[in-house]
Amino acid sequence: METYISLAHGDGGELSHRLIRDIFVSAFGDKNAVMFDAAAITMATHKIAVTTDSFVIKPIFFPGGSIGKLAVAGTVNDLAVSGAKPAYLTCGFVIEEGFPISNLKKIVTDMANEAKKSGVTIVAGDTKVVERGSADGVYINTTGIGVYQPEIGCSLEFAEGDAVIVSGTIGDHGIAVLTARGELGITAPVNSDCASLNNMLEAILKDTSGIKIMRDPTRGGLATTLVEIAEDFQLTINIQETAIPVKAEVHGVCDLLGYDPLYLANEGKAIIIVSAKEKDKVVEILRKFPEGKDAAIIGSISSKEKGRLLLETPLGAKRLLTRLSGTMFPRIC
Amino acid sequence: MCVGVPAKVIKKEEYSALVDVLGSQTTVGIIFVPEVEIGDYVIVHAGQAMSIVEEEYARQSVEEWKKLVNARNPETV
Amino acid sequence: MSMLEILKQSSNPEICKPLVDAVIQKAVEFRQKFGRKPAFMEVCGSHTMALARTGVKQSLKDYVQLISGPGCPVCVTDQRSIDAMIALAEGDNRIICTFGDMMRVPGSNRTLLDSKIAGKDIRVLYSPVDAVKVAKDNPDKEVIFLGVGFETTIPILTLMVGEAEKLRLDNFSIWMTTKLVEPVLRYLLEAGEVQLDGFLLPGHVSIVLGEDAYQYLVTEYNISGVITGFEPAELLSGIYKLIDLAINGQASILNNHPAVVRKAGNQVIHQWLEKYLTECDEAWRGMGVIPRSGLDLKPEYDKYNAKKRFTVEVGEPKKTKCRCGEVIRGLISPNECPLFGKACHPMNPIGPCMVSAEGSCAAYYQYMRESF
User: What is the pLDDT of residue A30?
Assistant: First the structure.
């Protein structure tokens, strides 16, 4: 097999055929995808969830994951936090001419492994090759289809006193990727949290009641996602700075660069709002999963009047948190 | 007017040092603190160590805060 | 206690919470004596941010008036200088290197970020010395660093010149627009527009200047200053000492950050500053030109002085209703500006105080808009 992707890999001819057969089909193991223009799938339900997401990340391999793992976990998580059971994925690749095929294999293997772990089948795919310089390595789009399960789901019926839970330490992905770029000369022993959360979230949905909403705080971080929940549902959410799990190393990098962990990206975390009664049980279940071992209750809904997010500082003072505004730059002064 | 973080020096070269900030590491310039030694904490600003943190004074400050607090609240220790 | 544990005490709630009460008690004592709240100015953008982020300012707001002064280097830079730096980026065959804070500062026509999006080579550096490396790696381009900053940052600019000299670079220069603390404090005191009981003096600038550098406050203006760090316990104890001095009617300079600030400052840094720099007049936002309030490269280093190497043309700055100039002088609180939170907010900043991470308006918008 060739070493690098060439434009011919995308022209629909023999090379395209081989690329699909040897790399994609051999990893994803669904022959339907190549024999027909569309995959035929069956689902015994009347209500499905559909989501799509495009993945562009630099570097494409980073501590704790790769663009491939991310492309599966990201879409699986979007389905899982919506309360649906992820079932099928499709994937579309845009590859830059000259991209090493060995790297493509690694990416596809990561996708296959993550799909297996989360129990989804990759049923359709597409590859396009663009001229060198027209793209940065590889971009992946995945679309996911999930099935809502009867009697299980998020109620969206909020009440004062509902607890806000985060499933683990925040900012790991942001720092892992930032430091992996090597531009800042900072090294941090932090892996991306990139992981599919569907099995863990299914467990809390099945074994507890009273879950109001689940969201994954990806870009924009914990604060931005909580502000969105607060505004969308007109809730005053109070979180305690000291209760939010942050790895020391993440704190360290943030101190050096003037970043705030509350606004750093996560790729394997869920925010869960649950009734006060069930909060401890939810945390207990989350902590049984490796992705949830640092789960913590970080705050509560204090009123249903005004959509806003408040952070209580270690001094006990409260301040308003807003969305991330613009890209974060390392600051100096 | 600047972000300044206490960082621990773990390796020293002529003009630069490797420092640790809560487990993350970076290289900083030490031209302004030539007397720095491994194990010292330094205040880093924009990639340069600007000052060495003196443990004795840092300790004194903590004692002073405790005194302020206790003077107000004699029953707590 | 290990060193790290000692350092962590500065944000330990068990120390900080009762310290809040101690400060409040002291402030009440002041009010009983003078019939008003004590008023102090912080002249450091990092203080402005730290006071708001940690909640110190909110916790004390009914007892102590904390006024943000001219401490954010981007904010105090006058509009014409900002426009000039943005115009500089428009030239061909140039690489502009800058601190992140500059990217979104509104110029009269555009921001540096706009120019970057339009394809100009503008790079945000964490460690400015890397700009010299950029120049070395791009010998066919002019590499210009935007030299904004107070005393803490200025020495780093001299290091860059030293490095460029060592590498015999012909394509590296700095656009110097630096600011000094003493001249602006004198300006504020001479103007007498704000009634102050003392200054919360900048912990990091003081690393460079030293404790002794502030004696003029006492001898010439009879006002106190306390050199203070950035963690909650440091801020609170600094404010406590300021109130205590004010109650006793005693003007004095205290070093509340002795672990890192020495009496005479950092002498090595002083040597670097003396070697490369000379005093110059600088224009400040809202204050005009203050004589000898900045540092520029000495003539023998013209080669590295971007202002000598390049000419940029800027028109009259665009007039807006922005009152950053008065905010910086401590005359108005950010929410007294008619634009605040309406036309001007972090996503659409009209003045620099809303965009810089240390700007008073940004701090106020982010942390102080409402009380809870």
Answer: 65
Q: What is the ipTM of this complex?
A: 0.91
Taking an 8 Å Cβ-Cβ cutoff, which residues of chain A contact chain C? 184-185, 242, 256-258, 310, 313-320, 322, 325-326, 329-333
* Residue of C140, C205, C201 lying closest to C178 (CA atoms): C205
Domains and CATH numbers, chain B: 5-72 (2.30.30.140)
Q: How far apart are CA B66 and CA C14, in angstroms?
A: 10
CA-CA distance, C160 to C129, in Å (whole number)? Answer: 5
Kindly state whether residue A327 falls inside one of the protein's structural domains.
no
The total number of structural domains that make up chain A? 2
Q: Does A314 contact C20 at a Cβ distance shorter than 8 Å? A: no
By CB atoms closer than 10 A (0-12, 13-18, 19+), residue A279 is: buried
Assess whether pLDDT exceeds 90 at residue A208. Answer: yes
Tokens describing residue C276: 């490369």
CB distance A205 to A211 below 8 Å: yes
Q: Does one domain contain both A24 and A129?
A: yes
Q: Is the domain of A269 the same as that of A308?
A: yes
Q: Euclidean distance between the first and final Cα of chain C, in Å? A: 36
A185 and B CB contact within 8 Å = yes
Q: What is the pLDDT of residue A149?
A: 85
CATH code assigned to C77-178+278-309 = 3.40.50.11740
Tell me the C-alpha distance between A246 and A262, whole Å: 9
Query: Model-level pTM?
Result: 0.90
pLDDT above 90: percentage of residues in chain A = 75
Q: Which chains touch B (3 or more CB pairs under 8 A)?
A: A, C
Domain range for residue A130?
Answer: 7-148
In this complex, do A252 and B23 lie within 8 Å of one another by their Cβ atoms? yes
Identify all chain A residues contacting C54, using CB atoms and an 8 Å cutoff: 313-315, 317
Digit-coded pLDDT (tens) for C319-346: 889 999 999 999 999 999 999 989 998 8
Same structural domain, A183 and A305: yes
Q: What is the pLDDT of residues C171-209, one digit of tens each?
A: 999 999 999 999 999 999 999 999 999 999 999 999 999
Q: How far is CA A73 from CA A114, C99, C161, C282, in A?
A: 7, 35, 48, 54
Measured between CB atoms, which of C6, C128, C203 is closest to B55? C6
The dihedral of CA C98, C101, C105, C110: what is its sign? positive
* DSSP code per residue over C106-169: --SS--HHHHHHTT--EEE-SSTTHHHHHHHH-TTSEEEEEEEE-TTTHHHHHHHHHHHHHTT-
- Is the N-terminal amide bond of C13 cis, ω within 30° of 0? no
Q: Cβ of A121: how many Cβ atoms within 10 Å?
A: 18
Query: Is residue A258 domain-shared with residue A111, that is, in the same domain?
Result: no
**Residue C21 · residue C27 · CB < 8 Å:** no
**What's chain A's average pLDDT?**
92
Assess whether A168 and A272 both reside in one domain.
Answer: yes
The CATH number assigned to the domain holding A270 equals 3.90.650.10
